[in-house]
Specification:
This protein has one domain: 10 Kd Chaperonin, Protein Cpn10, Chain O (Roll). Helices cover 29% and strands 27% of the residues. 11% of the residues are buried. Strands 4-5-1-2-3-6 form a six-stranded antiparallel sheet, with no helix packed on it. The chain is built from two helices and six strands. A hairpin with a 2-residue loop joins strand 4 and strand 5. The chain is of the alpha+beta class.
């Protein structure tokens, strides 16, 4: 099996129908994948680096909070650090099993044990498709 690294995801693409709605057969030479699929595996990498950065930023906020009477500049630094921390909260927006959409050009096609997968950067995923 493939183990994605550094913020990449492994996706099993949805397979395009082999015939049209009106019953016309689509030849294998024209066979393509849909621009959606299921997340099979999420790689580790930047997420762990982000965790270290997040913990470091939290320590900075704690140090600033311990100061008796911080000046206006330090209060501004604290506010900036809190803003950066807020961005780190939702770093990985997809999880295994999510049905996702991605551009046609996204990812690298990989054949493993007779199955086709796409390996792509997580930021190439444009939406999570949720059932109604």
């Amino acid at each position: 099996m493939i183990r994605p690294l550094a913020g990449r995801v492994l996706i099993q693409p949805d397979v395009q129908a082999k015939e049209t709605a009106s019953g016309l057969a689509i030849p294998d030479s024209h066979f393509e994948y849909e621009m959606s699929g299921r997340v099979v595996m999420i790689g580790s990498g930047p997420a762990s680096a982000h965790k270290v950065r997040r913990e470091s930023l939290q320590m900075v906020v704690q140090l600033l909070d311990r100061m008796a009477s911080p000046c206006a500049e330090l209060k501004a630094v604290r506010a900036s650090v809190l803003g950066i921390l807020a961005r780190y909260e939702n770093m990985s927006e997809v999880k295994v099993g999510d049905h996702v959409a991605f551009p046609y050009t996204a990812g690298t096609v990989m054949d493993v044990d007779g199955a086709r997968y796409l390996l792509m950067n997580e930021d190439q995923i444009v939406a999570v498709l949720e059932a109604e």
